[in-house]
């Protein structure tokens, strides 16, 4: 079995590590806050006090941390990953981060004869706990194939998306779609409440039809129960939506693809739904709700 070092023991990472350990992988862990790793240490994960120590003499390094600036520091700092690992190591960043940064990690790793994959996930805390995450992987296909069994410990829908950065670009498309889906669930609940419907019965009725979605089935019940604990933080979703906008604009996709579609309205936003939902979440952030779950969007409507 390959030795795995895992950096990031938050809401997602904690459950992913547990599933790796269930499949008999030896996992060495590091997190900025040790308290968040105590349960894993009790279960047998080996704690290290620094990234440098955590990644020493390992085969696979997995990271799932906060924001692009955190990823940059963890990979490129003098005490970070790339400066302190041996040739042939595989680094897998499962953070949702900038595709541009993922390409930078891949190119720098390649210079050092290190292999890099970008592999963001979707499925929230439920998917992480159940080992049913969707995993979108970019990088060299042969490296993906050689390490697919590791992904299979954490997810069920595991797809190789293409060259470096492709996993992150796919995740951006995922986040754009979620923005519309979660706001749609909120609006349906708001409408149901305004009409005096039994909103649970209403959701049960429509969730199995054409309106059904993962967000409706998983986040809808949490909304109705007043459970706004984070499966995915508002602050992280805001971060993702900004990355999607920046990548979209920097690639000139709007100019190249949408100019004909919107030829009569040149100033129209090319990611309109994303823009609208982003503004909603930024309002919640301004109201101090950054550390609640994305289902908190319901409060924008009620």
TrEMBL record:
Tell me its EC number(s), please. 1.1.1.60
Keywords, A to Z, come to:
NAD, Oxidoreductase
Q: Which domain of life does this protein belong to? A: Bacteria
UniProt KW Oxidoreductase keyword = yes
Q: Does the keyword NAD apply?
A: yes
Q: Which organism is it from?
A: Clostridium carnis
Domain named 6-phosphogluconate dehydrogenase NADP-binding: residues: 3-160
The record's Gene3D superfamilies line, in alphabetical order, gives: N-(1-d-carboxylethyl)-l-norvaline Dehydrogenase, domain 2 (1.10.1040.10), NAD(P)-binding Rossmann-like Domain (3.40.50.720)
Give the protein's recorded name.
NAD-binding 6-phosphogluconate dehydrogenase
Sequence similarity: Belongs to the HIBADH-related family.
């Amino acid at each position: 079995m390959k030795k795995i070092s895992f950096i990031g023991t938050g809401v997602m990472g904690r459950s992913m590590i547990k599933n790796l350990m269930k499949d008999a992988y030896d996992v060495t862990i590091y997190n900025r806050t040790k308290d968040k790793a105590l349960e894993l240490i009790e279960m047998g994960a080996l704690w290290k006090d620094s990234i440098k120590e955590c990644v020493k003499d390992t085969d696979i390094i997995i990271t799932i941390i906060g924001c692009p600036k955190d990823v940059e520091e963890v990979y490129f700092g003098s005490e970070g990953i790339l400066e302190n690992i041996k040739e042939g190591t595989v680094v897998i960043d499962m953070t949702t981060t900038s595709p541009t940064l993922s390409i930078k990690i891949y190119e720098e790793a390649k210079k050092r004869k290190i292999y890099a994959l970008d592999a963001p996930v979707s499925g929230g805390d439920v998917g992480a706990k159940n080992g049913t995450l969707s995993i979108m992987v970019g990088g060299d296909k042969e490296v993906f194939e050689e390490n697919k069994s590791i992904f299979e410990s954490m997810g069920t829908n595991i797809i190789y998306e293409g060259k470096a950065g492709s996993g992150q670009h796919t995740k951006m498309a995922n986040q754009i779609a979620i923005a519309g889906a979660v706001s749609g669930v909120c609006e349906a609940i708001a409408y149901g409440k305004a009409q005096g419907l039994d909103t649970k019965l209403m959701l049960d009725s429509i969730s199995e039809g054409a309106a059904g979605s993962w967000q409706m089935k998983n986040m809808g019940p949490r909304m109705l129960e007043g459970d706004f604990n984070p499966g995915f933080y508002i602050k992280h979703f805001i971060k993702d939506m900004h990355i999607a906008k920046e990548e979209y604009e920097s690639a000139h996709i709007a100019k190249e693809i949408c100019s004909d579609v919107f030829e009569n309205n040149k100033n129209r936003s090319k990611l309109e739904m994303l823009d609208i939902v982003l503004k909603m979440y930024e309002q919640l952030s301004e109201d101090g709700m950054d550390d609640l779950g994305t289902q908190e969007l319901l409060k924008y409507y009620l």
